[in-house]
Every structure is written in structure tokens, then in C-alpha cells.
TrEMBL record:
Function: Methylates the class 1 translation termination release factors RF1/PrfA and RF2/PrfB on the glutamine residue of the universally conserved GGQ motif.
Name by which UniProt lists this protein: Release factor glutamine methyltransferase
Positions that bind S-adenosyl-L-methionine: G117, T118, G119, T120, G121, D140, W167, N181
Recorded superkingdom: Bacteria
Alphabetic keyword roster: Methyltransferase, S-adenosyl-L-methionine, Transferase
Protein species of origin: Paracoccus salipaludis
Binding site for substrate: N181, P182, P183, Y184
Amino acid sequence: MSEARAVLAEATARLARAGIGNAAGDALALMAHVLEVPRHALRDALARPLPPEAAARFQAAVDARLDRQPVSQILGFRDFWKHRFRVTRDTLDPRPETETLVAAALELPWRTVLDLGTGTGAILLSVLAERPGARGLGVDLSKAALEVARGNAAMLGIGADFRHSDWFSAVEGRFDLIVSNPPYIAADEMSGLSPEVRDWEPRGALTDEGDGLGAYRAIAAGAVAHLAPGGWLAVEIGPTQGAAVSALFERQGLQEIAIRPDLDGRDRVVLSRRTA
């Protein structure tokens, strides 16, 4: 049996030669996963021989990463906001910039929330966990994604409802808050995405197969009918879409429109309100 540290070094070199940007970090994450220890406890484990079963699992994980499968899919989870969420190829990988939307939502007054295109349920469950007594509904066109979201809710012990719906098609009633991280990548931008995103995440969660604004048109068209008076709409956007999405919302009569940047200073969230 080889020492785990030597196996890790070899894997890191293989990933680097393949052009994986964070080769060392990815290899460490995969090693911690197969050894079932947190990263901070790896020091002692790396000084010991790597058991054959763990070595085989690590090799399979590295091979998957060489195929450009995202680390989160290999591990089966992604840490987001304050929780860990299960992810699969049926769901968008929750990203750090989406935490901007969670933070913005938690600054608003609401007791009921609708999450359009819920995916893993990361946005909905994160905000509900911070607002005891609030009620939330997550909808998605993907039944497979809804099963992941339900599993995450059960795993975290957070109460939420989930429903199969094409945007508002199966939604009834009004909500104090509507949130969404919809597909906003234009079809002609898809080829420029990294293989981890383009080839492994669900295409329908990435692009509307048009100009990247199709989802916002659908959301804008149905928002007023599903917002309580004074209710808020908060959506994630691509960094160049702030003005276009704001204009779509304004044309539907939404007001108090504001754009929030993410931690990198890029436009990331558009907020608007039904004032009447």
C-alpha cells in the first residue's frame, strides 16, 4: 500500500496536467471524502498507507474529475449559506454568488415565500431556516430536482412544500416574497461555459435557449398576480442583465426596483415590489 500523501501528490499532478484550475484543492477534497475525515484532520491520515478500498474509490473520484465532473457532484453535496445540500446531475450546483439572493431576501419582511425553479431547494430552505414560523413553496419543472429538494428539506428538518410547476402554472394564492434563480445564460453563450457547467449541469437550469431573458419575462408576467400587496420579488441575474430585467419588472407595474451586487461587485440580484 502506498502512503496516502504520495497518492494525493500524484493525483494533484494528474489534475494539474489536465488543466484543472484548483487541482490541489480538488484532490484534497476528494481524498477527505474517500477517507471520511474533515480536511483539518487529513494530516495524520495522509501519513498512513491508503487502504486498497479507499485507493480504488479515490482513483474513481479522480477519474471523474478528469472527465470534468464537478467536485460537488462527485462528493454528492455542496455547502451553501449555513447548510449542506445534496446535489445531483438533475440540479444546478448552488453557487456562492447565489448567497447574495439569500441575504437580500432575509432583509425583507415576509412570512410566506415562493421559490420558482427551486432545484436543490437551497434558496428556499436557507431562508426558511432563518425565519421560524414562515411558510414556503418551491416549484420546479424537473420532477427529479423536486425529489432532491424534498430530500434536502427532510435531511435538514426544514418544513417546506414542493410542487411540479412550469413557473406559475400550478401555483395558487399570493406570497409576501417570490425568489428565483432562473436560467439566464443566452443560448449563444453556452459554448463558452466551462465543461463542468456545460456538460454536467442540467441545461434547462442554465439557459432558456434564447436571449437569456425568457425566464424573467415569464416571472414578470405572473408576479403581480401572485404577490400580496406590498410583496417583494427578488431574482438572481447575470452580471450584465440588471437594466433589462429591471425594465421588464417596471413594465409590469412593479416598483422600488433596486440592483444588489455580489461580493465581487458584479450585479447579481434585482429587487422589486408590488406596492398596490
